[in-house]
Amino acid sequence: MKRTALALMVLPLLSTAAFATGYTGPGATPQVTTVSAALQAADDTHVVLEGQIVKRLQDELYEFKDATGTIQVEIDDEDWPGQKVSETAKVRLTGEVDKDFNSREIDVDRVELIN
Questions:
Q1: Could you report the per-residue pLDDT of 7-55, keeping only the tens digit for each?
Q2: pLDDT tens for residues 48-97?
Q3: Is residue 73 included in any domain, yes or no?
Q4: Is residue 19 one of the residues assigned to a domain?
Q5: Which terminus of the chain is more solvent-facing, meaning fewer CB atoms within 10 Å of its CB: N or C?
Q6: Measured between alpha carbons, how far is residue 102 from residues 39, 71, 98, 99, 105 in Å?
């Protein structure tokens, strides 16, 4: 009974947060769209980047490039699209900045092939 009550109290908070990420009006957090801006952005800043994944660095860690620079991106296996992606294919990455003490990378939630 207590678990059900707790779940019913927490569920609206989670669904409200999911809907709030699409808001673009006054007070919305700006979205980063270039690598150079992502390299300066705060931790957890939402990003949508378009460019190429040019190299695999480690398991689930890749180098991404756009016209403004390069950045490391972490892409979980389940986040890849159904098609194969080469180093020349143009992709759209949706995710957030993951800032550590001396580095930044993008934690990718979605990969879209846009060629």
A1: 555 445 444 343 445 666 776 666 899 999 999 999 999 999 999 999 9
A2: 999 999 999 999 999 999 999 999 999 999 998 888 999 999 999 999 99
A3: yes
A4: no
A5: N
A6: 11, 13, 11, 8, 11
Q: Which residues contact 44 (CB under 8 A, 6 or more apart)?
A: 96, 97, 98
Coil/strand/helix, residue 37: helix
H helices, E strands: number in the chain = 2, 5
Find the domain containing 62 and state its range.
Answer: 33-111
Chain-centroid distance of CA 101 in Å reads 19
The total number of structural domains in the chain stands at 1
Provide the CATH number for the domain around residue 52: 2.40.50.200
**CB-based contacts of 7, cutoff 8 Å, min separation 6:** none
- Determine the residue type at 70: T
